[in-house]
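Possible regression after last week's pipeline update?

I re-ran a chain I had predicted before the update to compare outputs. Posting the input and the new output here so someone can diff against the archived version. Not blocking, just want to make sure nothing changed silently.
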Amino acid sequence: MAETARRQGGGRPLPPPPRGVNQPPRPKPEPVDREKTCPLLLRVFTKTGGHHSQEDYAVRGKEPKDEVQIYTWKDATLRELTDLVKEVSVAARRRNARLSFAFVYPDSHGRFIVKEVGQTMSYPNRKQPDDSKTLSELRFEIGDYLDVAIY
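New output (post-update):
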């Protein structure tokens, strides 16, 4: 009864379900018309040797200092993002550099979660499995951060 009342507007709203838990698979998203669709601001934080920790994102306004702001669309692939990171990071330009991507987003308690979503190579000899994954396929939501570890 109380849950029904909450859903009908009384009381506190229920939190959203955790990402990726008991959710049906999404259909492949339509490509974005980049001429007509406004890009989103993607805040990218890079670090050599590993990902930033959850504690690095704990205080709003005191995120890690190594930030790159990229305007892109939800149909951007990890390969596109790799090439953009290489433009600003010397470490990412190394011939054998591996880039690991993670989304950073708040959980239902307001604590930030760092969730790895894919890896690419700076200069791949062959196509990597994660190269063609898009932000929307990986369930990126506007407002999430992108944490990139460069190995």
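Follow-up from reviewer: compared with the archived run. The longest helix spans residues 78-88. Marking as no regression found.
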